Amino acid sequence: MKVLHILNDGHNTLAAQIARIQDENNEVNTIDLSANNLSYEYVIESIFSSDRVISWHGEEENN
Questions:
Q1: In a domain, 6, yes or no
Q2: Is the dihedral of CA 14, 20, 26, 30 positive or negative?
Q3: Which of 7, 15, 42, 61 could bond 32 through an S-S bridge, CB–CB 3.0 to 4.6 Å?
């Protein structure tokens, strides 16, 4: 399965941990939307070529 993680606000520790676990049995890709050098076409192609897309907003809180 192709899994795409979209980081809307930059690095997210929880997202990175989950992506590492999923990478054991899946093809996992991560896109950081806060990066300056992303092309719209690359983001759209990545979304539509993935079986599952997970969108992350903000860094998790430490409680």
A1: no
A2: positive
A3: 7
Domain count, the chain: 1
Reduced DSSP (H G I as helix, E B as strand, rest coil) percent helix, strand, coil of the chain, to 5: 30, 25, 45
Question: Cα(57)–Cα(38) distance, rounded to whole angstroms?
Answer: 18
Tally of CA atoms within 13 A in the half-sphere of 26 that contains its CB: 18
Question: Tens place of pLDDT for every residue, the chain, 63 residues?
Answer: 999 999 999 999 999 999 999 999 999 999 999 998 999 999 999 999 999 999 999 775 554
Compute CA 40 distance to the chain's CA centroid, rounded to the nearest angstrom.
15
What's the CA gap between 17 and 4, in Å, rounded? 14
Q: Residue 4 domain-assigned?
A: no
Burial class (CB within 10 angstroms; exposed 0-12, middle 13-18, buried 19+) of 61? exposed
